[in-house]
# Entry
Amino acid sequence: MEPNGILIYAQKNQEGRIEPVVFELLSKARSLKEKLWNQRIMVCLIGERKNYDSIVNELGKYGADEVVIVSDDRLKDYNKIYHSEIFTQIAKKYPPRIILIGATPQGKEIAAYTSTKLETGLTADCTNLDIGENYLLLSTRPTFGGQMTADILCKTFPQMATVQQNIFQAIKKENTARAIFNWIDIDKIENKIEIIKTIQKEKHNKDIREAEIIIAGGQGACQENGFALIYELAKKLNGAVAGSREAYEKGYITKSQQVGQSGKVVAPKVYIAIGISGADQHLTGIKNSGKIIAINKDKNAPIFKYADIGIIGDLFEILPRLINEIDIDKEEKNE
# Structure
């Protein structure tokens, strides 16, 4: 069977809702579809036995033509072996031209397993997708530690790519998806993993990919009390703390908080950049932000060219005053 269409893995969170990156991939798939003679867009949904009508309807609104569902009560929680093998079997049954998966920890496991089983290439952590020469998938990804980007043409089928969240905009479309139910004999899958208990990890910081307000620190904040002030401001604003590559390398933030080409791409309503110069690698990660506020004592910092509001000054003078003003505003509202 000739490869046809685009297949997307529909990752769900622990509450059973579809992850935002899936809708972003669907929106991008629509533009790719137009360059591929309007081939179908399929979504593979794996989970427990339940009514999936509302989820199928939601996926359809973002561009899915068909939703292939594999359900079994043993699939309620993510299982690396079950989910990877089932997705691979679906890809074999409905051989697609392109496979797109969110570059989440789960998505990366699924993608690695599937590409190995299908003996095809995989471009990871992509920041853009297009159709290139000979109608092949053109994937753009960071390289050399985020210093450069590379355009990669995959010449084997299916052409596979994982994509970071917040790269593409999720846009609804008037469209209806058709549900296709598939039965796969899970007992024939050699499973070496038993899920005994699922424990939700306590989060000390909001997920920066989902935060509406982000306060990020750069090299200028990498000194005593710099990030302490940033965390205090984030608490006042109910925001998330993030940072640049320099902040991560110096141990002020975790990898999950790093923004930029070699970190995460974010799209908050407000992004406050503190002590961040504004290198291209960092700007790539914040290009979809609603408003950018920059605080930097270097008046020539590149970040000011992209900021909606720029404040020139020492963060150790500005942040305490800003935090204090927020306290005053709260007191006035309570009176």
